[in-house]
Amino acid sequence: MKAHYWSAFVLSFGLLATTAPGETQPLEPQKAGVEIIEKEQQAFYSQGKDMKADIRMELITADGKKRIRVLTMLRWNDPKSKDQKYFIYFREPADVRGMTFMVWKYPLKESDRWIYVPAIDLVRRIAARDARSSFVGSDFTYEDVSGRNIAADTHRLLREEKIGDRDCYLVESAPKEPIDYVKRISWIDKTTYLPLKEEYYDVQKELARVFSADKIEDIAAAESRERKRFPTVTRRTMKNLKAGHRTDVTYTSVSYDVGLQENIFTERYLRNPPERWIK
Amino acid sequence: MTRFASGGIVILGMFLLLLIENTRAVNAQVEAGKEQGGYETQVDPSSDETSKKRKPFLETLPFELHGFLDARGGLRTQDDPHESKTATLGETRLQLHLSKALDWAKFRIKSDFLYDGVVEGADVDLREANAFLTPFDFMDLKVGRQVLTWGTGDYIFINDLFPKDYNSFFIGRDDEYLKAPSDSLKASFYTKVLNLDFVYTPLFNPDRFIDGERLSYFNPQLGRLAGQDAVISPLKRDEWFEDSEIALRLYRDLKGYGLALYGYNGFWKSPMGFDPQMGKATFPRLSVYGFSARGKAWKGIGNIEGGYYDSRDDRSGKDPFVPNSQFRFLAGYEQELAKDFTVGVQYYLELMSDYGAYKRTLPPGSQVADEYRHVITLRLTKLLMYQNLRLSLFTFYSPSDQDGYVRPNIHYRITDRWSADAGANIFMGKKDHTFFGQFKDNTNVYFGLRWNF
Does B63 touch chain A (CB under 8 A)? Predict the structure, then answer.
């Protein structure tokens, strides 16, 4: 793992040196790939100072049986670093209602994760090292929900391509260490830098999972004077082609810059969810 | 618990009245609609259709009402000469959980209504009835009946001296029931440097300990296994404010590491003492001072916890009818070894102080406890089928007592509302008087089915 930190460090220095803002001259495919993925991660996982959303996930089997997961997610970006804090309040299904989940995410090291089980007033630390584990049993992994370490993959800009009427960059990302996929191809919108589609290829080099952004909405920041707007993927799908399983996700009542404070992301509120934000 | 039965009927009545009242109000507004089941086989192509659906009944209430209906049964896999029934578990339980948030406080009532076939009676177990408020930015208050937990152990408690229900734990009720409720006031104070939890319990809340009624145990006075022939009925600690408990936790986070100091002043939570004049078990006085730390370690989560059990009624260790003081120590480590497969190990040590005095004063013929009691635990958890199937195995093993306790469990979420589980509680031991060995005639298997709403 250590090698990755170094390569990220070196790479980011390299970028600083070669790409001044606004510069448009063509880049080497790898540098361009990294730069695009950085912008993508910023647009997809880190927009605004904070974010609040109600999330509904439908887990659908090959024969059409559905399970529902409903939760409220709060995200806070540390203004002093790239650290993020997440707070998740589970609403459905009934057997997890009221449970809360907290993540302190760091760009280069393992996250800290806590879960609270209200029926027994229990705060537990979660030893989830494997970021490739499924998030609440869906087709999305933890990484899909909160972002993957950019330096864990090598990135390469393949070409530009249209999806519908949107111009996209096509970036190939290959994990440096073996995981459940060997290659990811992302279609990244040239204007918003949001991923419109991703294809994951497994060790047999076969297409295994497909992500698609099905609906994108412009969401205005709550408290900024200039009324900043953040393009947001509000409907997304992850399909597991081999299992025939898929997960449809809808984000409702998304808001940015609502004024979340860092102290929300502590044991106090894990045990007693902040009514103001969870209502 | 039966003394709560009449009060429980009142609470159940209140639930029903509220339900009926709200059903009437809802019916007046809308035509009778079907409740939306959790198990849907239709896949909606668009979300617009879902928004047209009528709200489920429970969402039309002016407060939140949830709960479950749970039926479970279990039986011994061998005869127990001290218990009349083979069945260890046979009950139907309705849990209603009502909550209401106002601007100034949150109220919760959670109550179980059950028919217990093993004791052949209906019972009410009021698990929560409390108000939560935040009088100041730096302070929270929770008053009333509540379930309380702290500390870092997995099924091992050192500084958590809130009441446990070992009967439920040993017969295959849901993990939720390992914790019994407390009637307490909990005040929490938050500062940038330290946080403080202060829990005052005006009247001692003992464990729901193994008393022989349902499960057999080793009776030191008789010097043998016993059950319904020697049901423990301890001298009660029932003086309000006199028999009170105080529990404290000072804690803070340090870069993702949870650090805590604890203090407790009260009584041994199970009747560990004995009054030879009255011939009854007692709850001797106890204070506990301890610490814990938990956070990332190597590739997983590590924790350590320790505590000194100051047995205030026998500080010299010379009273054979009161437990000696003890040091308790725990170290644990948990790691996700493979995708959805987690392994946790713990080492636990109990060290009796003044062991010489204990041995000198022990009545002749008594079973001698070791100075050091070592316990090792192992937890394996595997999630399958999109995390709807959970296989778990928890094992306690004591090399010093030469006994053990194994808890296999399989839990399946059939749908979002229905779940089933099955498991076993397997006790082993070379001797009758050791902690787990004494329960070996209670080894049982169980099965449960639950419907959540």
Answer: no
For A265, the 3-state DSSP assignment is: coil
Q: What is the CATH number of domain B2-22+57-452?
A: 2.40.160.10
Other CB atoms within a 10 A radius of the CB of residue B278 amount to 10
Question: From residue A30, how far is each of A36, A188, B172 by CA, in Å?
Answer: 10, 15, 57
**Interface with A, mutate which of B255, B386, B412, B421 (most A CBs under 10 A):** B386
By Cβ distance, the residue of A95, A266, A275 closest to B419 is A95
* CATH number of the domain that residue A203 is part of: 2.50.20.10
Q: Do B38 and A122 touch (CB under 8 A)?
A: no
Interface pTM, i.e. ipTM: 0.86
Q: Which of A276, A121, A13 is nearest to B186 (CA)?
A: A121
Helix axes A29-45, A2-18, angle to 10 degrees: 100
The span from the CA of B9 to the CA of B62, in Å, is: 22
Residue A217 lies in a domain: yes
Widest Cα–Cα separation across chain B: 79
* Cross-chain Cβ contact B256/A112 below 8 Å: yes
What does each of the 453 residues of chain B score in pLDDT, given as a tens digit?
A: 333 444 454 455 555 555 555 555 555 444 433 433 333 333 344 444 444 556 777 777 888 899 999 999 999 999 999 999 999 999 999 999 999 998 899 999 999 999 999 988 999 999 999 999 999 999 999 999 999 999 999 999 999 999 999 999 999 999 999 999 999 999 999 999 999 999 999 999 999 999 999 999 999 999 999 999 999 999 999 999 999 999 999 999 999 999 999 999 999 999 999 999 999 999 999 999 999 999 999 999 999 999 999 999 999 999 999 999 999 999 999 999 988 899 999 999 999 999 999 999 998 888 899 999 999 999 999 999 999 999 999 999 999 999 999 999 999 999 999 999 999 999 999 999 999 999 999 999 999 999 999
Per residue in A78-97, pLDDT tens?
A: 999 999 999 999 999 999 99
For chain A, the residues whose C-beta falls within 8 A of a C-beta of chain B are: 59-60, 64-68, 92-95, 97, 104, 110, 112, 119-123, 125-130, 132-134, 136-138, 180, 235, 245, 250, 266-268, 272, 275, 279
Question: How is B297-322 classified by DSSP, letter by letter?
Answer: ETTEEEEEEEEEEEETT-TTS--TTS
Residue A148 is part of which domain span?
A: 2-20+28-273
Q: Is some CB atom of chain A closer than 8 A to the CB atom of B133?
A: no
User: Is A278 part of any domain?
Assistant: no
- Residue A199: CB atoms within 10 Å: 18
- Dist. CA B142–CA B106, nearest whole Å: 9
Peptide bond into A93 cis (omega under 30): yes
Domain boundaries, chain B: 2-22+57-452
Of A229, A226, A269, A225, the closest CA to residue A76 belongs to A269
Nearest CA among A185, A241, A211 for reference residue A36: A185
